Structures are given as C-alpha cells and as structure tokens.
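Quick bug: LacI family transcriptional regulator output formatted oddly.
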Amino acid sequence: MLRKGVDGIIISLANDTVNFQHLNEVIAQDKSLIMFDKIAKTVNCSKVIINDRQAAYNATKHLIDTGCKRIAHFRGSLLPQNSIDRFLGYRKALEDHNIPYDASIVYICECADKSFEEGEQNALKLLEEHDDVDGIFINTDLVAIGAMSAFQKAGVRIPEDIAIVGFSNWFMSSVISPKLTTIDQPGFLMGKTAFKQLFKEIKSRKKNKPIEYKKIELATELINRESTK
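Here's what came back:
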C-alpha cells in the first residue's frame, strides 16, 4: 500500500499477528494509521475500540444475575487483544461474585473461518466433560449459534438447561430460535469513526499540523433475548 502512495491506512489485525514492524514502518513514513477492533497496544497510533473487558464482564454478570452458577467460556485464540480482554472480563465477573474460576471450562476457538463448527465441537466436548455447566459466555455470535445447534440436537434446552450469551449482535442472532442474547458491538459506527479520524489526521499532515493520537472508545449494549432466562 505504501508503494501505491496511500495517505493513510485503517486496519484491524489478524488473529495470529505477532509482529508489528510493518505497522511501525507506516508511522515512520509519516502516514496516518488507524487501528480498530483488533489492535496492538504497543503501536503508537489512533485506535477505535470498544471496552471488550467491560462488555464481557456485563455478559457474564447477566448470566450470574439470571441464576447461573457454573459458567463456561468459549474464548477466541490466545493472541488477539480483544480475545484476551473478553477472557479477563469473564474472569473478573466470576471473581466479583465469588464464583471459583475453573480453567477446564474455558474452551479455545482458534479458526475464525470455522467458527460455527468450533461452536458445535466445543459444545459437544462440554457436554461430555462438564454436564453441570448451566451458562456459557461465548466470544462471537457465530460460535454461539454453532454451540446452540449442537445443544439442540443433543436435547439440551436453551435457556432452561444452559443459558448462552454471545458477542457482536450479528444479524442471525435475532432470527434463530431461541433468539440469542448478545453484546451489541457497533461495527458500522466503528468503521465510520475510524474513517473520520483518518481523514482528520491526513488533513492535519497536509497542513503540517501536529497529530494528536486518540483512543476512541465506543459504547456496547447487552441485548437481552431468549437464550437467557
């Protein structure tokens, strides 16, 4: 992109990104860089994010408030910052409500392009290994929908036997049965905000004005539907 003469870049990191040298090169060449959603805290640029940790805390607390005592977590892969923060929010909610953390009921979903299948597979593993779980906070809606499919085929009632909260408010979450309780992540607004910040920084650079990097945090909301009590 730099060879094509772009003035700036908006980027969300891949799940397996561990080297940020290419991003630092963008900044070193005095180009605007805006990160959104999946970010690197160590890269010095503007970022548009949500508070993943607080959103995950709210999702887990909702399960606790509706009576769940043994809450599993289907998390994303170990590297992305948003996956880390959602796990930490889940764990903090358990701690604040005196529910012991159990690493054996945290299942990792590694493949973004096979999210539905991983949801199904982890749901079946959970039934085999921990039939006492009564609630699950799941890192994305597509994983949650896969898990719900597996549970329903196995005769598990949602939310009577297992309550589920997803994350992102993907369009399918409101049309499946039961409808999925989830965290609304404002994806469209995130993209729009990232572009506005990029445009602002590009204009400032062209006028040789100093750039003020910003961390812009957008609000999330728990959408209470039918997959929780």
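Actually, after a second look the formatting is fine. The mean pLDDT is 94. Closing.
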